[in-house]
Amino acid sequence: MVYTITVHLYCNDKPDSVTRLKAKLVEAAHIYRQDQGTVDWLVMQDVKDPKAFTIVERFEKEESQKFHLENPYWRTFDPAVTPLLDRPMDLRRHEELEATA
Prior knowledge:
Strand order of the largest sheet: 2-3-1-4
Strand content: 25-35%
Order of helices and strands: EHEEHHE
Largest sheet: 4 strands, antiparallel
Distance between the termini: 16 Å
Radius of gyration: 14 Å
Helix content: 25-40%
């Protein structure tokens, strides 16, 4: 069963925040997709509200996020992203359900 984390982020109103947040999220996706145990690390921008973003982190199992959190890049992510946000990140943890025929 795939262990999934979704993170909803909402950008502040400063002029370059959306551009900077988008760049940091794309950069993070390229790095985190390479972590051991990561199935995928996706970033999305809302089609109606350009300040709203979602991250979908998919891991082989819950324990796999250990490699993600041990990645040296992790220490740079929050300090770069948090000042760009209007509100705290909304993080949710899920276990994907198996779809059977």
